[in-house]
Amino acid sequence: KGCKLVGCGSEVPSLSVSNDDLAKIVDTSDEWISVRTGIRNRRVISGKENLRNLAVEAAKKALKMANVEPDDLDLILLCTSTPEDIFGDAPKVQRELGCTKSQLAHDITAACSGFVLGLFSASCYIKGGGFRNVLVIGADVMSRFVDWTNRGTCILFGDAAGAVVLQACDAEEDGLLSFDLHSDGEGARHLGAPINDNENGSVLEFPPNRSSYACVQMNGKEVFRFAVRCVPQSIESALEKAGLTASNIDWLLLHQANQRIIDAVATRLEFPPEKVISNLANYGNTSAASIPLALDEAVRSGKVKPGHTIAAAGFGAGLTWGSAVIRW
Ligand code: ACO
């Protein structure tokens, strides 16, 4: 059995925030941000925009490209770490898409690796579970969880959603060729947005106070080192499982966190710059949305063509990281 990618779509908020806009609220500059990260702009939710409506719009575009009706879906996987509801948003996305059957919809939480895990889960549901049409959405609104007075983090992130539709097919048509997936809780201290409970070290009393989450806390240098060390190894391992080498692959598509990370990984794997997909300059780090957002742009602009192979990798909080070798 196989499963193939039959559609993609994406959605970003309307408000565009440039590096110069950020320089008005924190002590930074366009030059510092673009030289260190490659980011020039990001989109941030405003007005009535939220995670769910970004996810729904991205999903509608992917379903349209796939020529799949909402009721033809057997499963919706919403990969996000910033849901509107801690119990998850996937069933609400299912309702807002107009699905009338009680097909399964659930969230997957794995920060910036979420979308790669979503692809893997979809492949298991299809290849082992008899599911036929699966929608995988990567969506995050990090703007709700960053400290807009902290120049070390607020410059990095943007909000977005991206989606793909996967369909059961014969093994020869398989579009999800291999995976390599990891996590390391030891590294969690370098990146997180933990619950604020028990801040002063006191023992929780009954009844406990209502909880809230801290803003994103990050040791940028450690995260940088982790990405440059682990991502090339993971991609090499996924390529080996697929029986391929970097030279057989048409595109390298990494989680869009920092252009210097993308360049370093591409160099390590000997991918020439013309084979590297990057749209980070326009959107910043959109967490679980970054891979499907960049994929959607690359497909719609005609860069990625049917039959092309892509080495994709997500990495981020957890720490989590993982790679997928995909055929479009
Ligand atoms: N503008 C101007 N100066 C700044 C800014 C800013 N926005 N941010 C930090 N600085 C200053 C610091 O205060 C420091 O000043 P000092 O030398 O006087 O102390 C100096 O710039 C250097 O700061 P560093 O943090 O050491 O800068 P670094 O070169 O490590 O770059 C960066 C920081 C861009 C965050 C980098 O470490 C990085 O990209 N790391 C990866 C982070 C990442 O990708 N995180 C997200 C991935 S995981 C996920 O997606 C959830």
UniProtKB/TrEMBL annotation:
Keywords: Fatty acid biosynthesis, Fatty acid metabolism, Lipid biosynthesis, Lipid metabolism, Transferase
Pathway: Lipid metabolism; fatty acid biosynthesis
Residue stretches making up the Beta-ketoacyl-[acyl-carrier-protein] synthase III C-terminal domain: 239-328
Domain Beta-ketoacyl-[acyl-carrier-protein] synthase III N-terminal residues, every copy: 107-185
Keyword Lipid biosynthesis appears in the UniProt entry: yes
Similarity comment: Belongs to the thiolase-like superfamily. FabH family.
Protein name: 3-oxoacyl-[acyl-carrier-protein] synthase III, chloroplastic
Origin species: Gossypium hirsutum
Residues of the full protein shown: 63 to 390 of 391
